[in-house]
Structure formats: structure tokens, C-alpha cells
Amino acid sequence: MSQFEITKKNKVVRGAKRATYDEQKIYDILDAGFLCHVAFNINNQPFMIPTAYGRRGDLLYIHGSVKSRTIKNIAKGVPVCLAVTHLDGLVLARSAFHHSVNYRSVIIYGTAVEVTERSDKNDALYCITENILKGRWEETRKPNDKELDITGVLAIKIESASAKVRMGGPVDDQEDYDLDIWAGHLPLNTCFGKPVSDEKLKNGIEISPSVEKKLC
Amino acid sequence: MSQFEITKKNKVVRGAKRATYDEQKIYDILDAGFLCHVAFNINNQPFMIPTAYGRRGDLLYIHGSVKSRTIKNIAKGVPVCLAVTHLDGLVLARSAFHHSVNYRSVIIYGTAVEVTERSDKNDALYCITENILKGRWEETRKPNDKELDITGVLAIKIESASAKVRMGGPVDDQEDYDLDIWAGHLPLNTCFGKPVSDEKLKNGIEISPSVEKKLC
User: Fold this and answer.
1) What is the ipTM of this complex?
2) What would the mean pLDDT of A104-109 be, rounded to a whole number?
3) Is A69 within 8 Å of A156 (Cβ atoms)?
4) Residue A179 three-state SS
């Protein structure tokens, strides 16, 4: 079982019993999502953006316009911190103090390398697109050279990482279990609703298989 | 209509037509959520955590253990960047390039002040708890002095902010509308599932009103 080295940077200080540094568990949490937040500094001012990602091995790909502040600054090789958080529910204790949430959360530390070759960019965009909606890439009109040239793609190598996971019901103080207060947990579910076809859709075009597979 | 001053820091560089600096629109996006990501620096290394928040006016409250790295470091008054992101759906274009997501996203810049008085801490925790689940505070056993003393509470003043919103279907290149590819958008819904009562719940305790109101 491979795990990330525990250092001062990635060590989970609080709630250590909920922490893991196991590589596969961290990858599983990453692969369950496609939206991350990426933080970086410019002159000691933190900046952050939400963006889509795809993973291949220990690389996370993100993309944006070549003109974007994030892409331009991160491409310089500055340290970045990347977070992926799945909120799984509310934990409702008898005491206000012991309220919590259920979650699966990963924090990644790394530096970015700009992906410059068109074929590598295309491959990274495939990885991101397929992570958002498996099977979609093959259904679409692929990027042309002009589109690849105006898209900035970054590969962030996962140098250090940690995860935290909380599941299940509340834990109250012993003396509070006798209180007449409802306690438990409330799962939070996300699911896709009914697809809305583009108003300019040609007649006779069926919903694509990649979308069909996502419907509840 | 009050809006945040547009400066170099909060100016949305890319997708500017999706941007807003309007105070009420930014507050509406904040009030629609309770999970944020907070980024800060230590020695030019960005750190980030996901955490719950509550808003009162131009203050955002967050909390954690007084021993946590985040609370200890942010309490020193360092600049922070805070993000709240609602993912509303997938936007599926005919071309891979024009794929997107629908979202409501806010980025906040500010500095934190530590809340130290017990009554002020209690009030901030009320604000956070009620933002997570309206009506829950009154149902619970309130924090005692010991609990307040080991809880670190920070008030982040919103000094600068911007929001971005994307809604609706895809926009494709003119020549792509003739392709036989399904295009449209796929709404993403989040809703609470069936409440799970704590296994140690006393007999005869009904699910509380705050929870009942949240059920789909």
C-alpha cells in the first residue's frame, strides 16, 4: 500500500484520526469528482479559482484561456494548493458543539508544468473531458489547432497530499444522550436532472449515450 | 445598487461578461451555500481548507479548533482568499472546445479578525449553524464555556469580491450547428436524502422541524 510521505506541509493537525495519506484512497476521492479549487500566490496575496480537472497517475490536468491570470501565473512553476471536496451530508448532534458534516476531502500540494505540444494538450483535454462525462469526447467535434493554441493546459504533479473522511452519525458527550433532542445524519445526494436539449438542436438527434448513462 | 470596487485584485479577466461585482448578487450566492474553501499563505506556500461559514453583513464567520493550523495562521491577520462555488450543471456543446459548466461562483478577498469574547463567539456559531440548517440552533444543547474556549472563531471582512455566473445551454461555432451531435445542458441537483436517526436516539423522539423542512 503506497502512501504519501507525511511532512509538516501535508500533516493533518486536527481530526488526525479522520486523515489518510494512502495514495489509492486519495486517488479514489479525486476520481469521484471533477471540480477542484486551486490556490496560488502573487506577492503574498492568495488567489483561488474553481476549475475542472482530470487525473492521470500522479498528474492533475487543468485548463483555461492562455490569457487567464491563473494559467499565466501557475504556469511559472509557483507552488499551488488544490482541493477537492465532496460534501456527503449533515451530522446533527444533540449539542450545537458536536455538529459536523460528512465529507471526503483531499488537499494536494504541487507545482505546475505547462503542457505545450498540441498532441499533449489534446490528450490532457481528453482526460479532463472524460473525467467530467465519460464517453463524451468521442461524441464531439475534436479541438482544432486554433482551439488548442488558445487553450492553456497545466499538469500539476502531486508532490504531497492528504485526505480526510468523515462518515456516519454524531458523537455526543455522554451526559447529552439523555436529552430529548433528535440526532442523526442527513445524507446529501447530487444527481443529474432531465437533460435540456439545445434550442438550435437539429431535428431527429437523440440524447447521446454519455448523457443517457448519467440519468438517475 | 451597491457594488464592490473593481480593482486589479478582484477584476475578472476571462469571461468578463459573466462577471458581477454587485453586492446583493454576491450575497445571494454566499447565502445559497455553507461550504467554502479558504486559502492563505505560510512562507509563500499556499494552504487551503474546506470549511463551513455564515454571513452577517460584510462579515463571514468561520470556526475551528483553536489548535488548528488554519485558525492559528489566519488569526494573525494575513490576507485570505475565500471561494464559494455552486455547480449547477454540465454544458454539452457539439465541439469539445465549447463544453462548459453552469455555475454560480464567488471569490472573496479579506483579512480575518479573531472573535475572542464568549458571547460574540456564541453569536458567530449561531450564525454558522443557522446558515447550515435553519432552526437547528434552537433545538440543540447550546455551547458551554469550555466548548466556546476551545473553539476558534474568525470574522473575515469582505474587502473585495467578484462573482461569476453561467446559465443555460451551449454556444457553438456557427459551422458546428449542422453536425449530428446532441447538444444541450444537464442540470445538477443536490437534495437531502432520508434522515438516519442516531442509533443511540432515545425512544419516542421525532425528527426535528429543522430537518423535516429540508426533505425533498
Assistant:
1) 0.95
2) 97
3) no
4) coil
Q: Please report residues of A whose CB lies closer than 8 A to that of B52.
A: 101
Structure confidence at residue A34 (pLDDT): 98
In whole angstroms, what is the distance from residue A71 CA to residue A49 CA?
A: 10
Return the domain boundaries, chain A: 16-172+182-188
Q: Show Cβ contacts of residue B19 under 8 Å, excluding neighbours closer than 6 positions.
A: B12, B162, B163, B164
CA atoms within 13 A on the CB side of B160: 15
Domain B16-212 has CATH 3.40.50.720: no
Tell me whether residues B94 and A140 touch, CB distance under 8 A. yes
Contact between A197 and B207 using a beta-carbon 8 Å cutoff: no
Q: What integer pLDDT is reported at residue A1 of this predicted model?
A: 66
What is the CATH topology of the domain spanning A16-172+182-188? Answer: Pnp Oxidase; Chain A (2.30.110)
Amino acid at A2: S
CB-based contact B35 A211, cutoff 8 Å: no
* pLDDT tens digits, one per residue of A42-80: 998 999 999 999 999 999 999 998 888 888 888 888 899
Residues 98-137 of A with CB under 8 A from B: 99, 101, 103, 105, 107, 109, 125, 129, 132-133, 136-137
pLDDT at A12: 87
- Per DSSP bridges, beta strands B184-192 and B79-92 are antiparallel
Length of chain A: 216
Do the bridges between strand B79-92 and strand B100-115 make them parallel or antiparallel, or are there none, so unpaired? Answer: antiparallel
Task: Say how many C-beta atoms besides its own lie within 10 A of residue A58's C-beta.
Answer: 17
Rounded to 5 degrees, φ, ψ at A18 are -90, 0
Tens-place pLDDT, residues B2-55: 999 999 888 988 888 888 999 999 999 999 999 999 999 999 899 999 999 999
A37 contacts B85? CB cut-off 8 A: yes
Residues of A in contact with B183 (CB under 8 A): 197-198, 200-201
Alpha-carbon distance of A109 to A189, in angstroms, equals 29
The minimum CA-CA distance between A212 and chain B, rounded to whole Å, is: 10
CB atoms A137 and B96 under 8 Å? yes
Q: What is the rounded CA–CA span in Å between residue B192 and residue A190?
A: 9
Q: Which of A89, A53, A90, A54 lies closest to A70, judged by CA?
A: A53
Q: Tell me which residues of chain B, numbers 60 to 89, contact chain A at a CB-CB cutoff of 8 Å.
A: 64-65, 67-69, 79-83, 85, 87, 89
pLDDT of residue B1: 66
Closest Cβ opposite residue B189 in set A87, A137, A190: A190
